[in-house]
């Protein structure tokens, strides 16, 4: 199992007071997302979560809904238009957070409203 969450960075076994968003599998822990790219660390767990969320947002992509799908409404708040696109973030490991949008609301900004950077577990 992979356990995703912010964790304090240690150096020589001692806490540094800085955090990365990480994955733990067994006794291995490593930084993920943008924290894996030479990130010096964050002052708080929330800052590490925000960095992870930015990574997820950068992976947003949209796919047209095919005719085989049942007709559904746009998930944007207050919209009653028929959904024509499915949005997801390709950067989220083991999670398939698909949302449906009309053509007007199929934007990264709208999809970002549905992206949470909380702790997660995956078995992929």
Keywords:
124 residues, alpha+beta, 2 domains, three-stranded antiparallel beta sheet, 15% helix, 34% strand
Describe the structure concisely.
This protein is of the alpha+beta class and 124 residues long. It is built from two helices and seven strands; from the N terminus they run βββαβββαβ. The chain has helices at 45-58, 108-112; strands at 2-11, 14-25, 28-31, 60-64, 85-89, 99-101, 120-122.
Could you describe the 3D structure shown?
With about 120 residues, this protein is of the alpha+beta class. The chain folds into two domains: about 1-60, no CATH class; about 60-115, no CATH class. About 15% of the residues lie in helices and about 35% in strands. It is built from two helices and seven strands; from the N terminus they run E-E-E-H-E-E-E-H-E. The chain has helices at about 45-60, 110; strands at about 1-10, 15-25, 30, 60-65, 85-90, 100, 120. The chain has a four-stranded antiparallel beta sheet with strand order 3-2-1-7. The longest helix has 14 residues, at about 45-60. The chain is elongated, with a radius of gyration of 17 Å. The model has no long low-confidence stretch (mean pLDDT about 90).
């Amino acid at each position: 199992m992979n356990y995703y969450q912010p964790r304090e960075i240690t150096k020589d076994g001692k806490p540094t007071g800085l955090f990365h968003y990480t994955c733990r599998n067994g006794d291995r822990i490593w930084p993920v997302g943008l924290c894996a790219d030479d990130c010096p660390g964050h002052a708080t767990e929330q800052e590490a979560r925000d960095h992870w969320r930015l990574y997820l947002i950068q992976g947003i992509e949209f796919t047209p809904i095919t005719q085989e799908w049942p007709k559904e409404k746009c998930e944007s708040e207050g919209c009653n238009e028929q959904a024509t696109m499915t949005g997801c973030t390709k950067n989220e490991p083991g999670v398939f957070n698909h949302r449906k949008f009309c053509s007007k609301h199929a934007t990264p900004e709208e999809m970002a409203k549905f992206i949470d950077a909380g702790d997660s577990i995956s078995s992929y």
